[in-house]
Amino acid sequence: MKLNIAVLPGDGIGPEVTQQAIKVLKAVALEFDHTFNFKEALVGAIAIEETGNPLPDETIKLCKASNAILFGAIGDPKFDNDPSAKVRPEQGLLRLRKEFGMFANIRPIKAYEKLLDKSPLKEAIIKGTDICIYRELTGGIYFGEKSLNEEKTIASDLCQYSKEEIERVAHLAFKAAQSRKKKVTLVDKANVLETSRLWRKVVTEIAKDYPDVSLDFLFVDNAAMQLILNPKQFDVILTENMFGDILSDEASVIGGSIGLLASASIGGKVGMFEPIHGSFPQAKGKGIANPIASILSAAMLLEHFGLHKEARRIQQAVEKSLELEITTSDISTKNSGVSTNRVGDFIEDFI
Amino acid sequence: MKLNIAVLPGDGIGPEVTQQAIKVLKAVALEFDHTFNFKEALVGAIAIEETGNPLPDETIKLCKASNAILFGAIGDPKFDNDPSAKVRPEQGLLRLRKEFGMFANIRPIKAYEKLLDKSPLKEAIIKGTDICIYRELTGGIYFGEKSLNEEKTIASDLCQYSKEEIERVAHLAFKAAQSRKKKVTLVDKANVLETSRLWRKVVTEIAKDYPDVSLDFLFVDNAAMQLILNPKQFDVILTENMFGDILSDEASVIGGSIGLLASASIGGKVGMFEPIHGSFPQAKGKGIANPIASILSAAMLLEHFGLHKEARRIQQAVEKSLELEITTSDISTKNSGVSTNRVGDFIEDFI
Ligand SMILES: CC(C)[C@H](C(=O)O)[C@@H](O)C(=O)O
Ligand SMILES: CC(C)[C@H](C(=O)O)[C@@H](O)C(=O)O
After folding, report:
1. Which residue, judged by its Cα, is nearest atom 1 of ligand 2?
2. Where is this site: Important for catalysis (chains A, B) (predicted)?
3. CATH topology of domain A120-255
């Protein structure tokens, strides 16, 4: 297979971890006889610095001409402390999602046997956990109308959802559940929000198309609690944009390190694959960033194009690296861990 | 001191736990020579059944004539499964908050030594945790305009905040921090939401009035993760309505049981004191509900009126009951636990 892959390394540790994912994808291409072409473009704070725009036209053009996007991370503390800045790195990410219609963000969360003791949660609680979160990604309060009055004393954000927006991501979640434990949990706040009531109604309708999948409901406050009390109860979690943002970061504690979690943002013509950890500016350039999330995102990319064998090989390589403790310091027990590059090399060699 | 206390037991286990709190307050009145008068009124599902209204005028009248409200719980699964019902129990609670201007919801979260092993989190993570959440309670997406088009295909909820709404709850949070560990963490999503950017701006201004208190910021997704990774880093958490709802339920896992967590909703002329657990309909009438959250809410009520000694006595009694394991089954280790009533009796006797 021939794939043109746009690489958007972004800020902080983005470039260094993405480098490892590329290395691994190249090894896969060699081993399985594919052609993967990589082209880089700017996004985020670095794009603002160089062009004044967090998502330059060049970048959009490259992504449009590609089959998939491999994304690093964005964000810089310099902008966080000035939330009223007109141009912010996050806008690049949000516009990318919207522009390319990536309405579904998929985040698998698994408790790796080898890392059970890394979690702040007790082993007995997390052992065996295998959750997949389907977060709606181009609607809701992220993209609704915003306002700030002239005196800067009243602000608002509109959370809006249409039936179609709910349906398309819901179908993906139910389909995923069919090849998993056949359970979808819709997380909402239907006792308060009108949009949540629409979600409940639409999703209940759609569930009828999937008689082999069971559907249950949880209010978001309760879900935030249940994720910690008993994560094993979940299979596929389906939820709206803001709730998905919160719950998926929260759920990352199950895996022992956010440095392990990959994600796919799909729905439009071009899918995007990225680690869920952010730019982690404190670690930038130190060679201590965990590249596994980025490497597993590359595996999700292959999965997306039906290259299951190839994706499986990457996952096996990652599991082997965990088993042999060829890992960065965030998840290493015995020693201070090895470098970002060393983890990438090992996984490359294994393939 | 003479206090008229409106008692709103509500649904599910509400009545049985509230009964214990009343018992304890009566013991305090006797011991410390106060006069507490209790009058009951309807709220929630039971109020809908008896009057068609989740917050009958009678109830409002009683509350207006009282110094404080002791609240049980509301909610009935029969309504949850029908989110499109025109009348729902939650409306009673929301209208009560709005009607009486309870703009600040205060939820203390503590890891009790005796219960460290009850939490799904590891002891080393939670030991020593002592957090107080200040949640804005009468603004944001809970009370903004809602809409549903005629075809029932597009729904919306408006999240709105004014400078004043932010200021008044922020002042309370900073004041609380002054008599604690002198740290306020504002949780928001300023990289996406206009309302969050207003929160950050207004709270940053207010912080100048409290030079002895440090202020830091956390995005809500990160906060949901940090609460589990390292809860000890927090002192006072200040946040808007929806985020506060999610984070405070999530944080309840630290205490080992949601059956321990009390809350106060204050700001207007009449404050309301309630356990944060819900109506827990499955446990109703079985005598297994943990009354401690309701009893500690009664202590918060006394605290609110400056009756510190009295509040302290209740807290001591609760700690003693934990120490001696005179507790309900949710937190009991040795045995199957004692009844709701028995826990109340012990605490009453201790006082
Ligand atoms: C950076 C930010 C805008 C983004 C989001 O909130 O969606 C991030 O937290 C994520 O989850 O990908
Ligand atoms: C019952 C519900 C409306 C309420 C809320 O969301 O505020 C509850 O979850 C709470 O936190 O008190």
Report:
1. B90
2. 142, 189
3. Isopropylmalate Dehydrogenase (3.40.718)
Residues A303-309: what's their mean pLDDT? 96
Q: What residue in B sits closest to A245 (Cα-Cα)?
A: B221
Q: Both ends of chain A: CA-CA distance in Å?
A: 18
The CA distance from A343 to A347, in Å, is 6
Going by C-alpha positions, the residue among A299, A298, A300, A278 that lies closest to residue A289 is A278
pLDDT tens per residue across span B68-109: 999 999 988 887 666 567 888 989 999 999 999 999 999 999
- By most ligand atoms within 8 Å of CB, the mutation choice from B69, B90, B102 for ligand 2 is B90
Kindly report the protein residue whose alpha carbon is nearest to atom 11 of ligand 1: A245
Distance in angstroms (rounded) separating the CA atoms of residues B51 and A340:
66
Q: Give the other-Cβ count within 10 Å of A256's Cβ.
A: 22
pLDDT the model gives residue A258 = 87
Set of chain A residues whose Cβ sits within 8 Å of the Cβ of B191: 75, 79-80, 83, 88, 90
Q: Give residue A44's Cα distance to chain centre.
A: 17
What are the backbone angles phi and psi of residue B77, rounded to the nearest 5°?
-55, -30
* Residue in chain B lying closest to A80 (CA): B191
8 Å CB contact between B298 and B91? no
Yes or no, beta carbons of A154 and B162 under 8 Å apart? yes
Beta strand segments in chain A, E: 2-10, 35-40, 68-73, 104-110, 130-136, 146-148, 154-162, 183-188, 214-219, 236-239, 262-266, 271-275
C-alpha distances (whole Å) from A40 to each of A10, A63, A90, B280 are: 10, 10, 19, 54
What pLDDT is attached to residue B85? 75
- The answer to whether B1-103+268-351 and B120-255 have equal CATH topology is yes
Alpha-carbon torsion angle B305, B308, B309, B313, nearest 10:
100
Say whether B224 and A246 touch across the interface (CB within 8 A): yes
Residue type, position A65, single letter: A
Cβ count near A284 (within 10 Å): 17
Q: For B248-290, how does the pLDDT look when each residue is reduced to its tens digit (9 = 90+)?
A: 999 999 988 889 999 999 999 999 999 999 899 889 999 999 9
The amino acid present at A334, given as its one-letter code, is K
Question: Would you state the structure tokens that stand for residue A36, as one six-digit string?
Answer: 């993967």
Total residues belonging to chain A = 351
Buried b / exposed e over B102-132, threshold 16 CB at 10 Å, is bbbbbbbbbbbebbbebbbbbeebbeebebb
Q: Which CATH number does the domain A1-103+257-351 belong to among 3.40.630.30, 3.30.200.20, 3.90.370.10, 3.40.718.10?
A: 3.40.718.10
Pocket of ligand 1 (CB under 6 A): A 90, 93-94, 245; B 191-192, 221
Residue A188 annotated as part of some ligand binding site: no
Domain ranges of chain B: 1-103+268-351, 120-255
